[in-house]
């Protein structure tokens, strides 16, 4: 259903990889779908894989805001 309707995509930032992993775990523990994106690192980090972002949802914004609402918007 969500693919055929409009929905918001919000981008926020964290200060560390540890915080990124913590947000990801909080989302999973809350029953939300959360996917960790890991870059292969070939462009910037000499082939060292780097966790770069997570995608949470689809879910109602109020559910996601409980986990990410304190983060800074980009």
Describe the structure.
With 74 residues, the chain is of the alpha+beta class. Helices cover 28% and strands 23% of the residues. Strands 1-4 form a two-stranded antiparallel ribbon. It has a two-stranded antiparallel sheet with strand order 2-3. The longest helix is centred in the N-terminal third of the chain and has 13 residues, at 17-29. It starts with 11 loop residues before the first strand and ends with a strand.
Entry summary:
With 74 residues, the protein is of the alpha+beta class.
Residue ranges: pLDDT <50 for 5 or more in a row? none
| Main sheet properties | 2 strands, antiparallel
How big a fraction of the residues is strand? 15-25%
Globular, elongated, flat, extended or rod-shaped: what is the shape?
A: globular
Distance between the termini: 28 Å
Task: Give the tags.
74 residues; alpha+beta; two-stranded antiparallel sheet; two-stranded antiparallel ribbon; 28% helix; globular
Question: Could you outline the blueprint of secondary structure elements for this entry?
Answer:
Blueprint: E1 12-13, H1 17-29, E2 34-39, E3 50-56, H2 61-68, E4 72-73
Antiparallel strand pairs: 1-4, 2-3
